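lol ok so funny story. i was supposed to be doing the assay writeup but got distracted and ended up predicting the structure for this chain instead. priorities right. anyway since i did it might as well share w the group, maybe its usefull for someone
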Amino acid sequence: MTQILNGNLVSKERMETLKQRVGRLGGRPPALHVIRVGDDVASEIYVKKKIEKCQFVGIQSKEWPLQASTSQQELLDLVERLNQDDSVDGVLIQLPLPDHVGAGQVLEALKPAKDVDGFHPYNLGKLLAREVGLVPCTPLGIMSLLEHYDIEVAGKKVVVIGRSRIVGRPLSLLFDQAGGTVTVVHQLTKDPAEVCKQADILVAACGRPELIGPERVKEGAVVIDVGIHRLPSGKLCGDVQFEKVKDHCSWITPVPGGVGPMTICSLLENTVQAYQTKRL
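and the output, tada:
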């Protein structure tokens, strides 16, 4: 019988633990500042959820809602201001940014020690070198979810569909570090369906609604769905055809309620880590 990797449940437990941890810190609480540029509705909702979770665990939070017309230099000036503010432990730059703003340059302007999203090249380099640092939140959340359910990675064939800087590439490094044999599928991969069907653990992070059907899933595989999309009908779905795939799996994440809550949880855990590292 297929079992659900319940991100809502696991994140709730981890948030409770984090709340207790924050309560024992002493001194001022950790502080997270979130920069949001423009009026993207999804971004507004995501930021609101993050701030609500901050309040629950005892992290101070502040949102910087900027106009879509904000120039790149104005955004860089704000980032530098937060870099220099010792009362700010973590800074999150909500993506996507408007087209006229170079996201790469803005992310790289952020001080690595405050990069709680884990996107700065310095932090990605530390991940590659297997050194302790701030790890991208979605990959970190996925590994925490698998650990909670005692799903072994070592010795398993892992296929990650997608190679983004945010999910695919850092996640493939984490799986490699955990002892998995990792293959990354992308648009130039030959016979991707056959590659996917070899996976003991299949991660769909391709950004295309319901692309992954049962023909790409090995019987008994663990399926992690990173995507979230709203169909014209209004229904939320992931990159996986959940209803058709679930009977082929041993474990599967739902959408919503799977990877998403774990990403937010990892963000707050990274914020507390940044706070504690600064105090060493």
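The chain has a mean pLDDT of 96. Residues 211 and 239 are 5 Å apart (CA to CA).
back to the writeup now i swear
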